[in-house]
Amino acid sequence: MNQITVGPGLAAYPLTMPASSPRPVAGPPSRPPRHRPPARSNLEVLVAGVERDERGDVEATVRRAFGSRDPAEAWSVSLVRLGRAWSVTLRGPGERFRNVSFSAEEHRLAEAIAESIGGDGDHRAPGSGQSDSPARVPAQASLTCEHCRQSIRVTYEAQPDETKSEAPLACPHCWAMNRVEIGAWAAAGGDYRAEKT
Fold it and tell me: So what CATH class is 43-117?
């Protein structure tokens, strides 16, 4: 601490220097937020036949395939894994895309979807003159309600040798919730109905 000495008869006062304020450390310059393309809120993707942790990658592949379409268009895409291929059903705007079905090899899923939804002509299954996906036929499943113990018949459509998947089902007798095993495509899209027997 320094001291100032003054003339006779005057007191000496300590000289206190004000503490210097630390200078703010300049950080890296702020970067503008990265622009991200708007998400397609009108695209519904249903995936069946794979583990839950694999569905995210499949959905991302499908969404990339729709990059050239108008984001305002409403689309529904149902995919069922059949061995090493995918059974694909598209529903979109207009009569042309009311119900388009085809199969695609796993490594060509995005390309096959892009080919199917591109252009303005009549639809053809990717890589062929007609759909190569087996036709779906009526199918049934039966169960007994776990609550009221009455019989229920479930009807849906499925392809031959299609994998099965569990789906929620409201009992038509007492409206209690049950689980029923039906075709994976119908389970993913909710395309089934329950009847009293």
Answer: alpha beta
